[in-house]
Design a protein that fits this description.
Oligomer: single chain
Number of helices: 10
Distance between the termini: 62 Å
CATH topology of the largest domain: Isoleucyl-tRNA Synthetase, Domain 1
Strand content: 5-15%
CATH architecture of the largest domain: Orthogonal Bundle
Helix content: 40-55%
Largest sheet: 4 strands, mixed
Structural class: alpha/beta
Shape: elongated
Number of domains: 2
CATH class of the largest domain: Mainly Alpha
């Protein structure tokens, strides 16, 4: 099934732009750095890839950067990922899988764009993020995904690569924001651990600088705590 839309085309161009580190060999990262086809693409191949990207960009009204040289591309690849990026990746994997299972291709692409926007703000694109992004792209644009997979240094076809799996532990928030009410009116918000108990939440609410100023030393008649939902201080 072929998906054709401005949003889909934009996603492809954006992903291509952010994954253009794949032009050269990355020592210790690329599986086979002795393979000239992987580590040293011919000038013709490089120009063809650049032409295809430029053509796609012109179709969607987007531009390309001049950071696509093999040396610059290789330097942009990183092995280390920060916790926020890894969490965003796994949430995207879960979301894209759900959208594809329901044949909602455009919303699957939208989730990939959201992840791409986060990745392009980083100093380097992490391999552990880039590869799942290409795998998620494969059902939507298989030929482009296959080429990206090859440029990432893989000699096997992406066709038989299993779809990325989300880690359930990374789909749960570490902290939650809870509104704090005084006599039924929201006066502030606090961040607490997602599994914090009522006593911990109450202490955090009463210790909050803004709430403490409003309470002004008064002894609350009652403090109603609904873990994960709200705190209501009755004066």
């Amino acid at each position: 099934m072929r998906v054709s839309s401005k949003g889909g085309a934009f996603a492809i161009v954006a992903l291509l732009a952010s994954v253009r580190f794949v032009g050269g060999c990355v020592d210790g990262v690329t599986p086979d750095c002795s393979n000239p086809a992987v580590c040293a693409p011919s000038e013709g191949d490089a120009s063809s890839s650049d032409s295809a990207l430029a053509e796609a960009a012109s179709d969607t009204g987007t531009g390309t950067t001049d950071a696509g040289s093999p040396d610059a591309d290789a330097d942009a690849l990183s092995d280390a990922s920060d916790a926020d990026t890894v969490r965003a990746l796994h949430r995207t994997i879960a979301g894209v899988r759900e959208e594809l299972d329901s044949l909602r291709f455009n919303t699957a692409i939208a989730k990939l764009i959201e992840l791409n926007n986060a990745v392009t703000k980083l100093d380097a694109t992490q391999r552990e993020v880039a590869e799942p992004m290409v795998v998620m792209l494969a059902p939507l644009v298989p030929h482009i995904a296959a080429e990206l997979w090859r440029l990432l240094g893989h000699t096997d076809t992406i066709t038989y690569v299993a779809f990325a799996e989300a880690d359930p532990a990374l789909l749960v928030d570490d902290t939650v924001e809870i509104p704090v009410q005084i006599n039924g009116k929201v006066r502030g918000r606090i961040d607490v651990a997602a599994d914090a108990d009522a006593a911990t939440i109450e202490a955090a609410a009463l210790a909050d600088e803004k709430i403490a100023a409003l309470v002004d030393g008064a002894t609350p008649k009652k403090v109603i705590v609904v873990p994960g939902r709200m705190v209501n201080i009755v004066l």
